[in-house]
Amino acid sequence: MTEALPALGLRALRAEIRSRLSRSGIANAGQEADWLLRHVLNCTAASLLARPNDSLPQEDRKRLELLLLRREAGEPLQYLLGNAPFRGRDLEVGPGVLIPRPETELLVDLALDVMPNGEFRFLDWGTGSGCIAVALLAERPQSYGFLAEKNPLSLACAWRNLSRYGLLERALLLHSRTPADIPVRAECDLVVSNPPYIPTEAIAGLMREVRDFEPHMALDGGPDGMDFYRALFEAASGWLKPGGLLLFEMGDARQAQALREPPQGKFQFLSELPDLSAIPRCMVWRYRG
User: Fold this and answer.
1) Within a 13 Å sphere around the CA of 222, how many CA atoms are in the beta-carbon half?
2) Stated pTM of the model
3) Contact, 121 vs 189, CB < 8 A?
4) Main-chain phi, psi angles of 128, to 5 degrees
5) Distance between CA atoms of residues 232 and 180, nearest Å
6) Torsion on CA atoms 217, 282, 233, 189, rounded to nearest 10
């Protein structure tokens, strides 16, 4: 049976949580202590600071201890809080669902730059939490999206995120094990994907929060990390209208270099968008048709 944290005032309790997180190797221990306390108390940062001597009921202290034990074991904070920010929106995430990354916001930036303000249809393969599709649908109110995902947990999570922001009427979710099984034919103006791109042997060297907790099916891109890029180039020619656009998030500069000239000549490379480290992070091609 899990013991409750000691009956301390919030200031002292915050110091205790920060100390335990720091000893566990958590870099932003003070900030995470605040987030965990605010999550349990369901309060703002200002409210937390205004109550330094208040103590928590025993049930809340037990709940906080359970969350703290999970975080000390390396479980991502986003799973404990149940959400992650993406382009100013809070999206539901949980165990078994890939956590949205800030880098993926660049992919949305690029998609919005290359697509018109009017109506268009897109397919988001490997949608995960639905973060890319939610952003596109919300920021382009005349767009329509197909969301494809092989992980049932992620597909259900994407559905809830679409529902949360009132976007379900313009979205169709598809359970897709591979790019080849999607029943979409020449209907899309845009295909966008942040596919699994980490080489299989590199998985073991990832941070423990990623390696031990996030779904490997959303990370493992095969021996060279390129399996899904190759499959998506092949499948996207069936999904896109002539002149349609294909956008990928890339894992590293090596992958970007390899894909600038895709096989079979069906796609014309147009441009790339670097991240803050000047590494090519997103790339766009036009389907020749």
Assistant:
1) 10
2) 0.94
3) yes
4) 60, -125
5) 8
6) 110
Tokens 């000549």 sit on residue: 265
Beta strands in the chain (DSSP E): 83-86, 89-92, 120-125, 143-149, 171-175, 188-193, 240-249, 267-274, 280-287
CA 250 to chain centre: 14
The DSSP 8-state label assigned to residue 205 in this structure reads G
Q: Are 34 and 48 in contact (CB under 8 A)?
A: yes
Domain boundaries, the chain: 10-73, 86-287
Q: How many CB atoms lie within 10 A of CB 73?
A: 12
Place of tokens 């559905």: 159
Q: What confidence tens digit (pLDDT) does each residue in 116-172 have?
A: 899 999 999 999 999 999 999 999 999 999 999 999 999 999 999 999 999 999 999
Report, at the CATH architecture level, how domain 86-287 is classified. Answer: 3-Layer(aba) Sandwich (3.40)
